[in-house]
Amino acid sequence: MADDFFNLFIRNFNKLGLKDRIDYHQNHPDVSFAAYKKQKLKEIAQTVNPIKKIYLDTKFWIEIRDVIYKSGKEKAIVKEIFLSLKEKIADHKIICPFSTALFDEFLKQGDLTRRKRTAQIADILTCNYSISPLYYIIGCETYNFISTASGRQTYQTDYIWTKALSVLGDISFNVKGDQGIEQQSLLLQKAYLDYYFQQTFQEVTAFNDQYQESNESAIWHAGMLNYAKANNMRNVSLEALHREELFSTFTHAADGMHISRNTIDIANQLSKMALKEIRGVAPVTYIYTLIYASLGRDKNRTTKPNDYYDISHSSLAVGTCDYFFAEKSFSTLLKSLKLDQNFRMTIAADYQEILELIRGID
Prior knowledge:
single chain, 362 residues, mainly alpha, two-stranded antiparallel sheet, 6 strands, globular
Protein backbone atom coordinates (compact mmCIF):
# COMPACT_ATOMS: atom_id res chain seq x y z
CA MET A 1 0.00 0.00 0.00
CA ALA A 2 2.96 2.31 0.59
CA ASP A 3 3.90 1.76 -3.07
CA ASP A 4 0.36 2.77 -4.04
CA PHE A 5 0.76 5.97 -2.03
CA PHE A 6 4.09 6.79 -3.69
CA ASN A 7 2.66 6.25 -7.18
CA LEU A 8 -0.40 8.35 -6.41
CA PHE A 9 1.82 11.05 -4.91
CA ILE A 10 3.93 11.22 -8.09
CA ARG A 11 0.82 11.25 -10.28
CA ASN A 12 -0.82 14.12 -8.41
CA PHE A 13 2.46 16.00 -8.00
CA ASN A 14 3.00 15.91 -11.76
CA LYS A 15 -0.64 16.77 -12.41
CA LEU A 16 -0.35 19.80 -10.18
CA GLY A 17 1.99 21.64 -12.55
CA LEU A 18 4.16 22.86 -9.69
CA LYS A 19 6.12 25.34 -11.79
CA ASP A 20 2.90 26.98 -13.00
CA ARG A 21 1.62 27.22 -9.42
CA ILE A 22 4.88 28.70 -8.15
CA ASP A 23 4.89 31.19 -11.04
CA TYR A 24 1.30 32.11 -10.16
CA HIS A 25 2.13 32.68 -6.49
CA GLN A 26 5.26 34.66 -7.37
CA ASN A 27 2.99 37.02 -9.29
CA HIS A 28 0.67 37.37 -6.25
CA PRO A 29 3.11 37.93 -3.35
CA ASP A 30 0.73 40.12 -1.37
CA VAL A 31 -1.82 37.31 -0.86
CA SER A 32 -1.28 35.74 2.56
CA PHE A 33 -1.58 32.02 3.21
CA ALA A 34 -4.77 32.62 5.24
CA ALA A 35 -6.31 34.71 2.45
CA TYR A 36 -5.40 32.14 -0.20
CA LYS A 37 -6.79 29.30 1.91
CA LYS A 38 -10.00 31.28 2.42
CA GLN A 39 -10.24 31.79 -1.35
CA LYS A 40 -9.82 28.06 -2.00
CA LEU A 41 -12.44 27.14 0.61
CA LYS A 42 -14.85 29.65 -0.92
CA GLU A 43 -14.37 28.01 -4.33
CA ILE A 44 -15.09 24.59 -2.79
CA ALA A 45 -18.22 25.89 -1.08
CA GLN A 46 -19.48 27.43 -4.33
CA THR A 47 -19.15 24.02 -5.99
CA VAL A 48 -20.66 21.96 -3.18
CA ASN A 49 -23.49 24.16 -1.91
CA PRO A 50 -25.85 23.76 -4.93
CA ILE A 51 -25.50 19.95 -4.89
CA LYS A 52 -27.56 17.64 -2.69
CA LYS A 53 -25.45 16.08 0.05
CA ILE A 54 -26.01 12.56 1.39
CA TYR A 55 -24.18 11.51 4.55
CA LEU A 56 -23.75 7.74 4.79
CA ASP A 57 -23.28 6.23 8.22
CA THR A 58 -20.30 3.88 8.61
CA LYS A 59 -22.37 0.72 8.17
CA PHE A 60 -23.39 1.76 4.64
CA TRP A 61 -19.80 2.35 3.54
CA ILE A 62 -18.81 -1.08 4.87
CA GLU A 63 -21.80 -2.87 3.33
CA ILE A 64 -21.26 -1.21 -0.06
CA ARG A 65 -17.58 -2.16 0.03
CA ASP A 66 -18.35 -5.78 0.93
CA VAL A 67 -21.01 -6.12 -1.76
CA ILE A 68 -18.90 -4.56 -4.51
CA TYR A 69 -15.84 -6.65 -3.65
CA LYS A 70 -17.92 -9.75 -2.83
CA SER A 71 -16.33 -10.07 0.60
CA GLY A 72 -19.50 -10.29 2.63
CA LYS A 73 -23.08 -11.42 2.57
CA GLU A 74 -24.76 -10.64 -0.75
CA LYS A 75 -27.33 -7.86 -0.41
CA ALA A 76 -28.92 -6.99 -3.73
CA ILE A 77 -30.53 -3.81 -2.42
CA VAL A 78 -27.17 -2.47 -1.18
CA LYS A 79 -25.76 -2.89 -4.69
CA GLU A 80 -28.83 -1.07 -6.09
CA ILE A 81 -28.24 1.76 -3.62
CA PHE A 82 -24.60 2.03 -4.71
CA LEU A 83 -25.43 2.03 -8.42
CA SER A 84 -28.15 4.65 -7.88
CA LEU A 85 -25.70 6.83 -5.95
CA LYS A 86 -23.13 6.49 -8.75
CA GLU A 87 -25.72 7.47 -11.35
CA LYS A 88 -26.76 10.60 -9.45
CA ILE A 89 -23.12 11.55 -8.85
CA ALA A 90 -22.34 11.15 -12.56
CA ASP A 91 -25.24 13.53 -13.27
CA HIS A 92 -23.79 16.04 -10.75
CA LYS A 93 -26.93 15.76 -8.61
CA ILE A 94 -25.35 14.56 -5.36
CA ILE A 95 -22.16 13.85 -3.44
CA CYS A 96 -21.64 11.67 -0.36
CA PRO A 97 -19.07 13.66 1.65
CA PHE A 98 -16.61 12.03 4.01
CA SER A 99 -15.71 13.23 7.50
CA THR A 100 -13.03 12.88 10.15
CA ALA A 101 -15.47 10.76 12.18
CA LEU A 102 -15.81 8.30 9.29
CA PHE A 103 -12.06 8.26 8.69
CA ASP A 104 -11.37 7.57 12.38
CA GLU A 105 -13.71 4.59 12.30
CA PHE A 106 -12.08 3.21 9.15
CA LEU A 107 -8.66 3.45 10.79
CA LYS A 108 -9.95 1.03 13.42
CA GLN A 109 -9.89 -1.63 10.68
CA GLY A 110 -6.76 -3.71 10.95
CA ASP A 111 -7.14 -5.27 7.50
CA LEU A 112 -5.25 -3.02 5.07
CA THR A 113 -6.97 -4.53 2.03
CA ARG A 114 -10.37 -3.59 3.42
CA ARG A 115 -9.10 -0.10 4.19
CA LYS A 116 -7.88 0.31 0.62
CA ARG A 117 -11.20 -0.93 -0.78
CA THR A 118 -13.15 1.42 1.48
CA ALA A 119 -10.99 4.32 0.27
CA GLN A 120 -11.66 3.33 -3.35
CA ILE A 121 -15.42 3.46 -2.69
CA ALA A 122 -14.92 6.83 -0.95
CA ASP A 123 -13.13 8.28 -3.97
CA ILE A 124 -16.10 7.27 -6.13
CA LEU A 125 -18.88 8.59 -3.92
CA THR A 126 -17.33 11.66 -2.27
CA CYS A 127 -15.89 13.30 -5.41
CA ASN A 128 -12.98 14.03 -3.04
CA TYR A 129 -15.11 16.28 -0.78
CA SER A 130 -15.20 16.13 2.98
CA ILE A 131 -16.85 17.95 5.84
CA SER A 132 -14.40 19.91 7.97
CA PRO A 133 -13.40 18.35 11.31
CA LEU A 134 -16.05 18.67 14.01
CA TYR A 135 -13.75 20.57 16.40
CA TYR A 136 -12.98 23.10 13.64
CA ILE A 137 -16.66 23.68 12.84
CA ILE A 138 -17.51 24.09 16.52
CA GLY A 139 -14.69 26.62 16.81
CA CYS A 140 -16.03 28.65 13.87
CA GLU A 141 -19.58 28.48 15.22
CA THR A 142 -18.39 29.56 18.68
CA TYR A 143 -16.77 32.59 17.05
CA ASN A 144 -20.04 33.34 15.24
CA PHE A 145 -22.07 32.93 18.44
CA ILE A 146 -19.79 35.34 20.30
CA SER A 147 -19.92 37.76 17.36
CA THR A 148 -23.72 37.69 17.34
CA ALA A 149 -24.02 38.03 21.11
CA SER A 150 -21.55 40.92 21.28
CA GLY A 151 -23.10 42.72 18.33
CA ARG A 152 -19.91 42.72 16.24
CA GLN A 153 -21.67 41.06 13.28
CA THR A 154 -18.43 39.69 11.78
CA TYR A 155 -18.70 36.01 10.89
CA GLN A 156 -16.66 33.04 9.82
CA THR A 157 -17.91 31.75 6.45
CA ASP A 158 -17.13 28.87 4.08
CA TYR A 159 -15.80 26.67 6.89
CA ILE A 160 -17.95 23.56 6.31
CA TRP A 161 -16.66 22.07 3.05
CA THR A 162 -13.14 20.95 2.29
CA LYS A 163 -11.20 18.14 0.57
CA ALA A 164 -9.93 14.66 1.42
CA LEU A 165 -6.72 15.43 3.28
CA SER A 166 -8.65 17.54 5.80
CA VAL A 167 -9.84 14.34 7.51
CA LEU A 168 -6.42 14.46 9.20
CA GLY A 169 -7.17 17.93 10.59
CA ASP A 170 -6.81 21.55 9.60
CA ILE A 171 -3.66 22.78 7.83
CA SER A 172 -1.48 25.63 9.05
CA PHE A 173 2.18 26.68 8.92
CA ASN A 174 4.37 28.55 11.37
CA VAL A 175 7.63 29.53 9.71
CA LYS A 176 9.69 32.47 10.96
CA GLY A 177 12.91 33.89 9.60
CA ASP A 178 14.21 36.89 7.71
CA GLN A 179 11.99 38.53 5.11
CA GLY A 180 13.47 36.60 2.17
CA ILE A 181 12.98 33.25 3.87
CA GLU A 182 9.43 34.14 4.86
CA GLN A 183 8.57 35.20 1.30
CA GLN A 184 9.91 31.94 -0.16
CA SER A 185 8.17 29.99 2.57
CA LEU A 186 4.85 31.69 1.83
CA LEU A 187 5.20 30.86 -1.86
CA LEU A 188 5.78 27.16 -1.07
CA GLN A 189 2.99 27.08 1.51
CA LYS A 190 0.46 28.29 -1.04
CA ALA A 191 1.78 25.89 -3.69
CA TYR A 192 1.50 23.06 -1.17
CA LEU A 193 -2.10 24.05 -0.44
CA ASP A 194 -2.88 23.54 -4.14
CA TYR A 195 -1.47 20.03 -3.83
CA TYR A 196 -3.25 19.48 -0.49
CA PHE A 197 -6.64 19.94 -2.12
CA GLN A 198 -5.87 17.38 -4.84
CA GLN A 199 -5.26 14.45 -2.48
CA THR A 200 -7.55 11.42 -2.80
CA PHE A 201 -8.89 9.26 0.01
CA GLN A 202 -6.80 6.37 -1.28
CA GLU A 203 -3.68 8.50 -0.83
CA VAL A 204 -4.72 9.65 2.63
CA THR A 205 -5.49 6.06 3.66
CA ALA A 206 -2.20 4.77 2.26
CA PHE A 207 -0.34 7.51 4.11
CA ASN A 208 -1.78 6.10 7.37
CA ASP A 209 -1.43 2.40 6.55
CA GLN A 210 0.71 1.71 9.63
CA TYR A 211 -1.72 3.44 11.99
CA GLN A 212 -4.71 1.88 13.72
CA GLU A 213 -7.21 4.07 15.52
CA SER A 214 -7.62 3.40 19.22
CA ASN A 215 -11.06 3.17 20.83
CA GLU A 216 -9.81 4.78 24.06
CA SER A 217 -11.36 8.21 23.44
CA ALA A 218 -14.77 6.68 22.64
CA ILE A 219 -14.59 4.48 25.75
CA TRP A 220 -13.66 7.49 27.89
CA HIS A 221 -16.55 9.61 26.56
CA ALA A 222 -19.06 6.79 27.10
CA GLY A 223 -17.79 6.19 30.63
CA MET A 224 -17.91 9.91 31.46
CA LEU A 225 -21.52 10.24 30.25
CA ASN A 226 -22.65 7.09 32.07
CA TYR A 227 -20.96 8.28 35.28
CA ALA A 228 -22.64 11.68 35.01
CA LYS A 229 -26.03 10.05 34.50
CA ALA A 230 -25.59 7.72 37.46
CA ASN A 231 -24.56 10.53 39.80
CA ASN A 232 -26.95 13.23 38.62
CA MET A 233 -29.92 13.35 40.96
CA ARG A 234 -31.35 16.56 39.47
CA ASN A 235 -34.63 16.52 37.62
CA VAL A 236 -34.00 19.11 34.91
CA SER A 237 -35.70 19.70 31.57
CA LEU A 238 -34.10 18.80 28.26
CA GLU A 239 -33.86 22.50 27.39
CA ALA A 240 -32.05 23.32 30.63
CA LEU A 241 -29.59 20.49 30.13
CA HIS A 242 -29.14 21.49 26.48
CA ARG A 243 -28.23 25.02 27.53
CA GLU A 244 -25.71 23.65 30.02
CA GLU A 245 -24.10 21.59 27.26
CA LEU A 246 -24.04 24.63 24.98
CA PHE A 247 -22.34 26.69 27.70
CA SER A 248 -19.74 23.99 28.30
CA THR A 249 -19.00 23.53 24.58
CA PHE A 250 -18.84 27.25 23.72
CA THR A 251 -16.66 27.95 26.77
CA HIS A 252 -14.25 25.12 25.97
CA ALA A 253 -13.99 26.23 22.32
CA ALA A 254 -13.47 29.89 23.30
CA ASP A 255 -10.70 28.89 25.70
CA GLY A 256 -9.08 26.84 22.95
CA MET A 257 -9.09 29.90 20.69
CA HIS A 258 -7.70 32.06 23.55
CA ILE A 259 -10.78 34.29 23.58
CA SER A 260 -10.81 36.09 26.91
CA ARG A 261 -13.82 35.38 29.10
CA ASN A 262 -13.90 39.13 29.72
CA THR A 263 -14.89 39.57 26.06
CA ILE A 264 -18.35 38.15 26.65
CA ASP A 265 -20.40 36.56 29.42
CA ILE A 266 -21.35 33.37 27.57
CA ALA A 267 -23.78 32.17 30.26
CA ASN A 268 -25.60 35.51 30.31
CA GLN A 269 -25.83 35.70 26.52
CA LEU A 270 -27.08 32.11 26.27
CA SER A 271 -29.86 32.91 28.74
CA LYS A 272 -30.98 35.83 26.55
CA MET A 273 -31.06 33.95 23.25
CA ALA A 274 -33.82 31.60 22.15
CA LEU A 275 -32.65 28.13 21.16
CA LYS A 276 -33.95 28.77 17.65
CA GLU A 277 -31.59 31.75 17.33
CA ILE A 278 -28.65 29.70 18.60
CA ARG A 279 -29.58 26.97 16.12
CA GLY A 280 -29.28 29.46 13.27
CA VAL A 281 -25.89 30.78 14.36
CA ALA A 282 -24.30 27.47 15.44
CA PRO A 283 -26.24 24.59 13.84
CA VAL A 284 -23.70 21.78 14.25
CA THR A 285 -22.92 22.80 17.84
CA TYR A 286 -26.66 22.97 18.57
CA ILE A 287 -27.15 19.40 17.33
CA TYR A 288 -24.05 18.05 19.03
CA THR A 289 -25.03 19.44 22.42
CA LEU A 290 -28.70 18.49 22.07
CA ILE A 291 -27.80 14.84 21.44
CA TYR A 292 -25.47 14.83 24.45
CA ALA A 293 -28.20 16.41 26.58
CA SER A 294 -30.76 13.87 25.42
CA LEU A 295 -28.48 10.91 26.14
CA GLY A 296 -27.56 12.47 29.48
CA ARG A 297 -31.22 12.56 30.57
CA ASP A 298 -31.98 8.99 29.49
CA LYS A 299 -30.95 6.97 32.54
CA ASN A 300 -32.46 3.82 31.08
CA ARG A 301 -29.99 3.81 28.19
CA THR A 302 -26.36 2.90 28.72
CA THR A 303 -24.11 4.96 26.49
CA LYS A 304 -21.76 2.78 24.43
CA PRO A 305 -18.35 3.68 22.94
CA ASN A 306 -19.78 3.60 19.40
CA ASP A 307 -22.25 6.33 20.44
CA TYR A 308 -19.26 8.68 20.50
CA TYR A 309 -18.87 8.25 16.74
CA ASP A 310 -22.64 8.28 16.13
CA ILE A 311 -22.93 11.64 17.89
CA SER A 312 -20.25 13.07 15.59
CA HIS A 313 -21.82 11.53 12.46
CA SER A 314 -25.26 12.83 13.41
CA SER A 315 -24.07 16.35 14.24
CA LEU A 316 -22.20 16.71 10.96
CA ALA A 317 -24.86 15.01 8.84
CA VAL A 318 -27.90 16.87 10.13
CA GLY A 319 -26.08 20.20 10.35
CA THR A 320 -24.58 20.16 6.85
CA CYS A 321 -26.34 17.65 4.57
CA ASP A 322 -29.73 17.12 2.93
CA TYR A 323 -29.96 13.41 3.77
CA PHE A 324 -28.60 11.21 6.54
CA PHE A 325 -28.78 7.46 6.05
CA ALA A 326 -28.24 6.22 9.58
CA GLU A 327 -28.40 3.31 11.98
CA LYS A 328 -31.98 2.63 13.05
CA SER A 329 -31.41 3.40 16.75
CA PHE A 330 -29.88 6.83 16.12
CA SER A 331 -32.35 7.56 13.35
CA THR A 332 -35.16 7.11 15.90
CA LEU A 333 -33.38 9.32 18.44
CA LEU A 334 -32.77 12.16 15.97
CA LYS A 335 -36.36 12.12 14.76
CA SER A 336 -37.65 12.15 18.34
CA LEU A 337 -35.68 15.37 18.82
CA LYS A 338 -37.27 16.73 15.61
CA LEU A 339 -33.88 17.48 14.15
CA ASP A 340 -34.96 16.42 10.66
CA GLN A 341 -37.89 18.86 10.83
CA ASN A 342 -35.93 21.74 12.35
CA PHE A 343 -33.14 21.44 9.78
CA ARG A 344 -35.41 20.59 6.84
CA MET A 345 -33.51 17.47 5.91
CA THR A 346 -34.30 13.75 5.67
CA ILE A 347 -33.17 10.94 7.96
CA ALA A 348 -33.72 7.34 6.90
CA ALA A 349 -32.61 3.86 7.98
CA ASP A 350 -34.80 1.53 5.91
CA TYR A 351 -33.02 0.29 2.77
CA GLN A 352 -36.02 0.42 0.47
CA GLU A 353 -36.89 3.94 1.62
CA ILE A 354 -33.28 4.99 1.07
CA LEU A 355 -33.27 3.58 -2.48
CA GLU A 356 -36.50 5.40 -3.33
CA LEU A 357 -35.16 8.67 -1.84
CA ILE A 358 -32.02 8.46 -4.00
CA ARG A 359 -33.96 7.69 -7.14
CA GLY A 360 -36.28 10.62 -6.44
CA ILE A 361 -33.49 13.24 -6.35
CA ASP A 362 -33.64 15.55 -9.39
